Amino acid sequence: MRVLLIKTSSMGDVIHTLPAITDARQAIPGIQFDWVVEEGFAEIPAWHPGVAEVIPVAIRRWRKHPLKAAMSGEWKRFKQRVGATRYDAIIDAQGLLKSAWLTRYAEGPVVGLDRDSAREPIASRFYDVQCDVPWGQHAVERVRLLFARALGYPLPPGIGHYGLDRQLLAGTPPQRPFVLFLHGTTWASKHWPELYWKQLAGRAAQNGLDVRLPWGNASEKARAERIAGGVDGVEVLPRLSLAGMARILASASACVAVDTGLGHLAAALDVPTVSLFGPTDPALTGAYGFSQVHLSSDYPSCAPCLQKTCSYQPTPDEARRFDLKREQPLCFTRLNPDRVFPELEALLLDKRAP
Q1: Of 194, 145, 160, 341, which is closest to residue 268 (Cα–Cα)?
Q2: Cis amide bond preceding 304, omega within 30
Q3: Sheet holding 210-213: strands in order across?
Q4: In CA terms, which of 25, 180, 208, 316 is 20 to 30 Å from 216?
């Protein structure tokens, strides 16, 4: 059985789809998937043994330069490639108009979410078969249920498995164990205060832990350098490709992460991780897997707000108790380093116990 999967972005959404492929392979012997995915995340599907072909798409780039995409022939080549195979099923696991539109160029019956289950209900009009997948459950479980209903097998019980080989991705073991601080994220409101990262780095160094700091752009690099400044045993990594980042993650003893795609990749590789949630809800999009600790803010009348920018107005009492320049968003004051470091220590002890 050959299935075309359309799940283009983001990094976390792509990673959340991997357990569904593992389920399908266990339920349907010999099934293979081709996967349409944004070019920036094309390495991820290739790590799963159930993916036969990765078909990169560049919707983000093409939207910015549509004439260039047409003139270069990229769009034409994509349509030819995706339409070259007759599929037993085409699954749109994204539920957006942009992903549903891509199904028009593939050959085979199209399956997707019904209008009450899709993020953009209009997308359901493109599907031959529409599946009811209730909201209110974790994103991984929603995709697993969609695949089970689309391909006709019972949903396997228990936690889903990503199907990645951590040892293969890690390569040569590091000379010294280390922990990773995954400090970069997209929303301004999801950033843990830089002051707290600096304090946590100091606590780690005092306890003999090596810390490594990745970065993906100039702003993140500058923040990493400020966190590492003057603290022994804290290293700013060079800029890494996605494969390079996966290798570092797979070699780490543990991570501390904000709500970010790399945190989801750590979970997919079974790296013990403490994830910090202020404006977002870990019950719906938290790091999914084993040895994953979610610390979620319970700030009154505020978290989780699900807003990209913090709009909370501090009270006079909060202005006296907190440094409003360095402890923002205030919801993270419930998750300060004194609370986070013991959780990191416990994960490391659990890891060393066997």
Answers
A1: 160
A2: yes
A3: 234-236, 210-213, 178-182, 254-258, 273-277, 292-296
A4: 208
**Calpha distance 354→347 (Å, rounded):** 13
Alpha-carbon gap, residue 166 to 33, rounded angstroms: 21
Give dist(CA 231, CA 79) in Å, integer: 52
Q: Cβ(96)–Cβ(120) under 8 Å?
A: yes
pLDDT of residue 218: 97
Predicted model pTM: 0.94
- What confidence score (pLDDT) does residue 353 get? 39
Contact 79, 57 (CB under 8 A): no
Listed residue (343, 339, 344) closest to 211, CA to CA: 344
Is there a contact between 214 and 247 (Cβ–Cβ < 8 Å)? no
pLDDT at 354: 32
pLDDT of residue 69: 81
